[in-house]
Design goal:
The chain is an alpha/beta fold. The protein has helices spanning 10-16, 20-28, 64-78, 96-102, 120-126, 142-153, 171-174, 194-197, 201-219, 221-230; strands at 2-7, 32-37, 50-52, 60-62, 83-93, 107-111, 129-132, 186-187, 190-191. A five-stranded parallel β-sheet has the order 2-1-6-5-7, with helices on both faces. It has a two-stranded antiparallel sheet with strand order 3-4. A hairpin with a 2-residue loop joins strand 8 and strand 9 (190-191). Helix 3 (64-78) runs parallel beside helix 5 and helix 9 (201-219) packs across helix 10. The longest helix is centred in the last third of the chain and has 19 residues, at 201-219. The structure holds 6-{[(1R,3S)-3-phenylcyclopentyl]amino}pyridine-3-carboxamide.
Length: 234
Amino acid sequence: MRIDIITLFPEMCEAVMSESIIGRARAKGVIEVNCHQLRDFAFDKHKRVDDTTYGGGMGMLMKAEPIALCFEDICKKTGSRPHFIYMSPKGRTLTQQRLTELAQMENITILCGHYEGVDQRLIDEFIDEEISIGDYVLTGGELPALVLADSVSRLVPGVLSDDICFSEESHFGGLLEYPQYTKPSVWREREVPEVLMSGHHANIEKWRHEKSIEETKLKRPDLYEKYLAENGGK
Ligand code: 58G
């Protein structure tokens, strides 16, 4: 998969996407990430990427043409028309389900907005999908774009090592994950649940499933209700 990010802060995006698992996946060539400086596509003498809004109001908006030119350059470089996503609080909230669909795509391009957003005509002409990472407003689209790039990348085959492989659905089949423990077996007088030390795999499975249900009922009653509706008698 190839991910292109259009931003006024390419170094910020580059830095985040160079660390840890994502950085390693890029080095291995399993994913390709390119961060583009939008200002390089502003061809007026002041390299303007923003301007005042028609109809008044105090805010500034991002101009359409630099974004269009940057995206068209990406199309030329990829020899394709990538799925073009705008990170926006107006978008549909990102879910693990949508991520599994996006992970099938060969090329995605992510636009990071600033100021009060982007000229609506750019959205109407080019944007395939507006995505939000949650109901709150940030100063820029970079953090949401990086959340999307990270969460979609880890679903691409070869990005995660076998021992940290992901579960197919979000929340482990509609439930929250069971509690987990590592060494030492006693920490500050707290012991690891005995069943986990028993080596009895059937009992361990049963305990984990019960804990998952308990945890979900307590912390996410909305998910628990859905789970009950789908798994009725069981
Ligand atoms: C209102 C305010 C509309 C994504 C700002 C558009 C982007 C939150 C999210 C904007 C974002 C999210 C300008 C700054 C988009 C633009 C950007 N804030 N919830 N802010 O995913």
